[in-house]
């Protein structure tokens, strides 16, 4: 009995959630998955170069070409592949809304409503942020003491690529697309976490911007 109590106590101290399994994308990248309430999420940012259909998603490095896009594309933050392992890739909103499906087959980019289900499960947007952030300050800038990652979402501050092709906010913000348009085929909702806030925020942005992607099981 004492050994069982000790194991439970250790898990609480480290706040390490238990993963539910893994999923592979079409490129063969493997992602840890986590059960949060009734939903199964990827616990890592997407890294694929192809849609579920097999069609390639272009890697666009130049600022000018990125700014003129109206079709799907991806980039490493700062065009530096060393950012891939921790943060995944940044995808513009046109890649997310493509019907070929950017996620592994059998998975999809969560809708705005599915993101709300997640934050509701974690006590609402005012509390969800800290429960979704990876703990410590290896990745997150400044103070991150309140982060618990008790959800297992393991959110990291991968930053963004603006519509003009410039990069910013790595270490400070993690931003993830939803698949829900906002009154236009060129704008969509997204969710984001900030290093010095407890909340999980909601915003809307042009699909010319680049953000991280998490997938949810169908």
What features would you highlight for this structure?
single chain, 218 residues, 13 strands, disordered N terminus
Spell out the blueprint of helices and strands.
Layout: H1 2-14, E1 21-24, E2 30-36, E3 39-42, H2 63-67, E4 74-75, H3 84-87, E5 90-92, H4 93-97, E6 107-108, H5 112-121, H6 125-132, E7 160-161, E8 167-168, E9 173-181, E10 187-194, E11 201-206, E12 210-211, E13 216-217
Antiparallel strand pairs: 1-2, 2-3, 4-5, 5-12, 6-13, 7-8, 9-10, 10-11
Helix pairs in contact: 5-6
- Calculate the terminal CA-CA distance, rounded to whole Å: 40 Å
- The average pLDDT score comes to 91
Helix percent reads 10-25%
Strand content: 15-25%
Radius of gyration: 17 Å
* Strand tally: 13
> For the report, how would you describe the main beta sheet?
3 strands, antiparallel
Briefly note the structural class of the backbone: alpha+beta
- Domains, number: 1
Poorly predicted spans: 1-16
Count, helices? 6
SSE string: HEEEHEHEHEHHEEEEEEE
Shape: globular
The strand line-up of the biggest sheet is: 1-2-3
Describe the protein.
- The chain is an alpha+beta fold and 218 residues long.
- The chain has one domain.
- The protein is built from six helices and 13 strands.
- It has helices at residues 2-14, 63-67, 84-87, 93-97, 112-121, 125-132, and strands at residues 21-24, 30-36, 39-42, 74-75, 90-92, 107-108, 160-161, 167-168, 173-181, 187-194, 201-206, 210-211, 216-217.
- The strands form five sheets. Strands 1-2-3 form a three-stranded antiparallel β-sheet, with no helix packed on it. It has a three-stranded antiparallel β-sheet with strand order 4-5-12. It has a three-stranded antiparallel β-sheet with strand order 9-10-11.
- Helix 5 (112-121) crosses helix 6 (125-132).
- It is globular, with a radius of gyration of 17 Å.
- Mean pLDDT is 91; it is low at 1-16.
């Amino acid at each position: 009995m004492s050994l069982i109590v000790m194991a439970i106590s250790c898990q609480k101290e480290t706040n390490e959630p238990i993963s539910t399994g893994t999923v592979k994308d079409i490129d063969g990248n493997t992602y840890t998955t986590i059960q949060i309430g009734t939903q199964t999420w990827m616990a890592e940012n997407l890294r694929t170069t192809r849609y579920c259909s097999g069609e390639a998603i272009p890697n666009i490095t130049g600022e000018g070409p990125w700014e003129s896009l109206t079709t799907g594309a991806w980039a490493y933050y700062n065009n530096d592949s060393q950012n891939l392992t921790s943060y995944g890739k940044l995808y513009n909103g046109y890649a997310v809304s493509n019907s070929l499906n950017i996620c592994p087959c059998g998975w999809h980019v969560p809708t705005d409503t599915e993101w709300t289900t997640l934050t509701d499960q974690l006590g609402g947007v005012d509390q969800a942020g800290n429960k979704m952030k990876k703990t410590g300050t290896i990745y997150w800038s400044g103070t991150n003491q309140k982060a618990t990652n008790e959800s297992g979402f393991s959110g990291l501050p991968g930053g963004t690529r603006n519509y003009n092709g410039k990069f910013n906010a790595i270490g400070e913000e993690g931003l993830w697309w939803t698949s829900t348009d906002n009154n236009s085929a060129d704008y969509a909702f997204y969710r984001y976490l900030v290093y010095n806030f407890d909340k999980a925020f909601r915003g809307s942005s042009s699909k010319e911007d680049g953000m991280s992607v998490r997938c949810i099981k169908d």
